Amino acid sequence: MKKIQILAGALALAVLACAGCGKKVPSDPTTLNDTGLVSSSTQELIYKNSSYTLRFNYNDAGEWQWKDDTTIPLNQSKVQELLDQVSALNVLVPLENPGDITTYDLDAPDRTLEVKDADGSGISLQIGSAAEGGGHYMCRDGDTTKIYVVPDALVQMMDRNIYELVQIPAVPVLAAEQITAIEAQGGGASVTVSRGDDGRWLREGTDVSGQLKGLVSLLGQGLALESCVDYNPSSGALPICGLTDPTVTATVHYTAANGSAGSFTVKVGLSNEDGYFAMYNEVPAIFKVSAATAQLLTGLLSLAA
């Protein structure tokens, strides 16, 4: 690719950076869009990558939802990150000397992006191959004679699957004195430990505080559901993940800050890469927890020995 292309791309990205700093960019008919790609009237966002097509719409509750399954709660901040990247594209200027555009994979691109308003109007972009030197990708809209470059950050967001956009439940963070009891079942064993008035952890009158130290510390930091693996999983997914007969089902009972009693349950299944499959309360989803978390929860069952 000729040097002028890289320089033009760098200038385009510099304009993007300026747009992100909050300064108003004057209307310019030579840019990709002089009125803004995302506004209060934007109602639909569709992006396609090499693996899937995701369609989102803005609902009456003022939230973005996945059109294919509106029951899946989306992390609105992550969707907004994508919208912000799209919004900033309006200031892109076409390359002065795009060279041989047939080499940019724009006729049958792996990625496309559509933004639509309530009346159906909007813009459709084709995103092709990575530009020489990296950091941005070649792009065009309906005017196939103009070639733009879009930042790599946008492409990375478009490569996320729907489960990467799921709102992960927040597990309560509990101080040791808030936890009243912990139950665990699995592999035919059943264990219940309770916190005594003196702060010791007891199982059938035996002090097991030493064995509970790691788990209590984890609960104080916040047991994390690291990612979503599947939402509204099929019946066949649960046995594959070891969640029809979990390795351990642990329930933590606690007293909330307002004095009310509460509890949550985590089920741990089979290993998954560097973690383990897990489920949380009655949320119809499969999550991933760290190996360290899984080991602390399954370790409760050793108290039954």
Highlighted features:
305 residues; alpha+beta; seven-stranded antiparallel beta sheet; 32% strand; elongated; disordered N terminus
Helices and strands, with pairings:
Blueprint: H1 3-20, E1 42-48, E2 53-58, E3 64-66, H2 76-87, E4 111-117, E5 122-130, E6 136-140, E7 148-151, H3 152-158, E8 179-186, E9 189-195, E10 201-203, E11 206-207, H4 209-221, E12 227-231, H5 237-240, E13 248-255, E14 261-272, E15 275-280, E16 285-290, H6 291-298
Antiparallel strand pairs: 1-2, 1-4, 2-3, 4-5, 5-6, 6-7, 8-9, 8-13, 9-10, 10-11, 12-16, 13-14, 14-15, 15-16
Helix pairs in contact: 2-3
Walkthrough of the structure:
- The protein is 20% helix and 32% strand.
- The protein is α+β, with helices and mostly antiparallel strands and 305 residues long.
- The chain has a 9-stranded antiparallel β-sheet. It has a 7-stranded antiparallel β-sheet with strand order 3-2-1-4-5-6-7.
- Helix 2 crosses helix 3 (152-158).
- The longest helix is centred in the N-terminal third of the chain and has 18 residues, at 3-20.
- It is elongated and about 80 Å long.
